Automatic annotation (TrEMBL):
Keywords: Nucleus. One of its GO terms (biological process) is regulation of DNA-templated transcription. The keyword RNA-binding does not apply. It comes from the Eukaryota. It comes from Durio zibethinus. Residues 389-414 have a biased composition (Polar residues). It holds the Pfam family TCR. Residues 1-20, 96-128, 389-461 are annotated as: Disordered. This is Protein tesmin/TSO1-like CXC 5.
Length: 560
DNA sequence: GAGTTTGAAACT
DNA sequence: CAGTTTCAAACTC
C-alpha cells in the first residue's frame, strides 16, 4: 500500500495552528546557523521540552526558516558529508552530547541512536561520518528516513527520489506537518532523561548504566532488546516500563546484557553480536557463561528469600519497570526455559503484565507447606517428649512418676500450642499431624518411624523431613548437654523454669529444622536451574518435552 | 553485496 | 485499538 508514494505529497490536512503558530516565535530562540558553520558548537541544545521541539519543527515551515536554509544550503555544498541541521527538533541535541567536532560543527541526530556511540564503539575514536540514509520509497519524507526523523536534510545520502532537501522545502514542510499531525511528538527526542536514571549511578560489570528511557518504549519481540533493532539498546539505554517488549534482556542486572559488554570483549562487535544471539536464544544468561557459582547462589537466594536489601546490586528484582524484563532474563533466562507452566507469565506484554515467578515455584507446593507445618508440629512435640524422656531417665525412679506426668502434660500443652501456631500460619487444616493419615501407614521407614513413632506420614512429609535425622540428633545427642543441664536445673528449679527451657529447646530445634529445609530448597533451586539451563541448551529450537516435575525433583532429592 | 530479519512507522 | 503493510536499518551469509 502506498503511503502516498505515488501521487501527491503528504496530505495537506495540516492544522492551521500547527502550521504556524506557537512555533515561529521560538525560532528566535534557536541558533539555526549553528549547524552550518556558525560560531556555535554546531549543536543546538534545547531543554527537553515538547513545545520547544514542536516549535522548532514548525519553525521549519516558516518562510523565514526557509530563507535561512536556502542560504545555508550553499554552505552545505561546502561541507560534504556533513548534514546540515534543519531547524527541527532533531537538530537539537537533547541532553545527549553529540560527537562534537569543533573543526566542523556536526549535526546531531538525537533521535537516531546511530549517531550515538555505543559502548563498544566508545573506544573507536574515529570521527564518525554522519549516517546517510538509503531511502527508496519514502522520499525521505517519512519517519522511516533517519534524516527526516532527525530533522536534517539529506545530504550525500544514498536515497532515491529524495525530497528532504531545500529544493523541496515545501513538500518537506508539508511532510513535517503531516507527521506532526499524526504524532505531535514525532520529532521529539525519543529518549528522555529518566527520573529513575539517577537511581543508580554505579557501574555494572563493564557496563555503564545509561540514564534515560525511551519515551514510547520499544516493542521488540525477537531481538531480546539486545540488538540495534531495539531503539532502547541502540540508544544505549535500558528498557523501561514504557517498553512493551517481549523477552527483554536489556535491563539493569541482565546477565545477558552484561555478557555483551563483558571485559575484554566489550569492544568486539562480533563478540557482542554473538553474545546477543546466544542470549536471545537462551544459550546464556543465568546459567550460561558469565555466571559464576557465587552469583548463582545469590540469585537463588534472591529468588527464594527475595533478598534484595543486603546486596546493593540486587535491585533488579525490586526494580521498577523490569517486571517485564525479568521475565526474559537473568531470572527469566532459566525461568523461561522452564517448560512448566510459565506460558502465562511470558506471553503477556507491557509493564506489570509480568508476574515474577520463582524458580522454586514448581518445587514448593502448597501441600508441601502444609506438610512442613505438620512436620514442625510433630517435631516440636517429639522434641518435647524427647526432652521429657531424657529428663526422666536422669531422675530417680522415685521421681519417675512425677517426671512422666510432667512430660505428658508438657507435651500436650506444647502440642496444642504448636497446633495453634500452625493454624494461624496456614489457616487450614495442616495443624493436625493426623492429616498425614492420607498417606497411609505404609511409611515406617527409619526416618518416619524414628521421628514420628509410627505416625503415618505422606511421602511429601517425609521428603520435607529430610533432615529429621539431624534434627533427631540434635534433639537427642546435642541437647544431651542441655538436658543434663536442664535436668540438674529443673530438679532444683521450680516447675516453670524447666518448662521455659524446654520451650527454648523446642524452638531451637524447630527453627533449626526449618532452616535446614530452606537450605535444601536453595539447593533444589540450584539443581533445577542447572537442569533447566542444560535442557534449554540442548533443546533450543526443538520441541520441549515435559520437564520432570519440580516437586518430584525435590522429593527425589530429599529422599536421599 | 545480496538476501533476510527486525521493529518502527504508517495504514486500515 | 488491534491487525496489517510498508519501510529502511540491522543483520547474516
Amino acid at each position: 500500500m502506498g503511503e502516498g508514494e505515488g501521487g501527491e505529497f503528504p496530505p495537506k490536512k495540516v492544522q492551521p495552528d500547527t502550521a504556524d503558530f506557537p512555533f515561529k516565535k521560538r525560532v528566535t530562540q534557536l541558533d539555526f546557523t549553528a549547524g552550518f558553520g556558525g560560531v556555535s558548537s554546531g549543536v543546538v541544545v534545547l531543554p527537553e521540552h515538547p513545545q520547544s521541539t514542536q516549535g522548532m519543527v514548525a519553525s521549519l515551515s516558516s518562510a523565514a526558516a526557509a530563507a535561512v536554509t536556502q542560504q545555508q544550503h550553499q554552505q552545505q555544498q561546502q561541507q560534504k558529508q556533513i548534514k546540515p541541521p534543519m531547524v527541527s527538533t532533531a537538530t537539537v541535541a537533547y541532553a545527549q552530547p553529540p560527537p562534537i567536532n569543533t573543526a566542523s560543527p556536526r549535526v546531531v541526530k538525537p533521535e537516531s541512536p546511530k549517531a550515538k556511540p555505543r559502548p563498544n564503539e566508545l573506544k573507536d575514536a574515529t570521527p564518525k561520518k554522519q549516517k546517510q540514509c538509503n531511502c527508496k520509497h519514502s522520499r525521505c519524507l517519512k519517519l522511516y528516513c533517519e534524516c527526516f526523523a532527525s530533522g536534517i536534510y539529506c545530504d550525500g545520502c544514498n536515497c532515491v527520489n529524495c525530497y528532504n532537501n531545500v529544493e523541496n522545502e515545501a513538500a518537506r514542510r508539508d511532510a513535517v506537518e503531516a507527521t506532526l499531525e499524526r504524532n505531535p511528538n514525532a520529532f521529539r527526542p525519543k529518549i528522555a532523561s529518566s527520573p529513575h536514571g539517577a537511581r543508580d549511578s554505579r557501574k555494572e560489570a563493564g557496563e555503564v548504566l545509561m540514564l534515560g528511557k525511551h519515551n514510547k518504549g520499544c516493542h521488540c519481540k525477537k531481538s531480546g532488546c539486545l540488538k540495534k533493532y531495539c531503539e532502547c539498546f541502540q540508544a544505549d539505554i535500558l528498557c523501561s516500563e514504557n517498553c512493551k517488549c517481549m523477552d527483554c534482556k536489556n535491563f539493569e542486572g541482565s546477565e545477558e546484557r552484561q555478557a555483551l559488554f563483558h571485559g575484554d570483549h566489550a569492544n568486539n562487535m562480533a563478540y557482542i553480536q554473538q553474545a546477543a544471539n546466544a542470549a536471545i536464544t537462551g544459550g546464556i544468561g543465568s546459567s550460561g557463561y558469565a555466571s559464576d557459582p557465587v552469583s548463582k547462589k545469590r540469585r537463588c537466594q534472591e529468588l527464594f528469600f527475595g533478598l534484595t536489601a543486603k546486596d546493593p546490586s540486587v535491585h533488579r528484582l525490586g526494580h521498577f519497570p523490569q517486571e517485564n524484563h525479568i521475565r526474559g532474563s537473568a531470572p527469566s533466562s532459566f525461568l523461561s526455559s522452564m517448560p512448566v507452566s510459565h506460558a502465562g507469565t511470558t506471553a503477556g506484554v507491557g509493564p506489570s503484565k509480568f508476574t515474577y515467578r520463582s524458580l522454586l515455584a514448581d518445587i514448593i507446593q502448597n501441600q508441601d507447606l502444609k506438610e512442613l507445618c505438620s512436620v514442625l508440629v510433630v517435631l516440636s512435640g517429639e522434641a518435647a517428649k524427647t526432652l521429657a524422656d531424657q529428663r526422666s531417665l536422669t531422675q530417680k525412679r522415685a521421681e519417675d512418676q512425677t517426671a512422666t506426668s510432667l512430660a505428658s502434660s508438657t507435651q500436650d500443652r506444647l502440642q496444642s500450642q504448636k497446633d495453634s501456631d500452625a493454624e494461624k500460619t496456614m489457616a487450614d487444616d495442616c495443624l493436625s499431624a493426623n492429616q498425614a493419615n492420607k498417606a497411609g501407614p505404609e511409611d515406617s521407614s527409619s526416618d518416619g518411624a524414628d521421628m514420628a513413632e509410627g505416625r503415618p506420614m505422606s511421602p511429601g512429609t517425609l521428603a520435607l523431613m529430610c533432615d529429621e535425622q539431624d534434627a533427631m540428633f540434635m534433639a537427642t545427642a546435642s541437647p544431651n548437654g542441655i538436658m543434663d543441664h536442664d535436668c540438674s536445673t529443673s530438679s532444683h528449679l521450680p516447675y516453670g523454669k524447666g518448662m521455659t527451657e524446654i520451650y527454648a529447646e523446642q524452638e531451637r530445634i524447630v527453627l533449626t529444622k526449618f532452616r535446614d529445609c530452606l537450605n535444601r530448597l536453595i539447593t533444589f533451586g540450584e539443581i533445577k536451574e542447572t537442569q533447566c539451563s542444560s535442557l534449554a541448551r540442548t533443546e533450543i529450537g526443538s520441541q520441549r518435552g515435559p520437564l520432570s516435575n519440580g516437586t518430584e525433583v525435590v522429593r527425589t532429592e530429599t529422599g536421599n
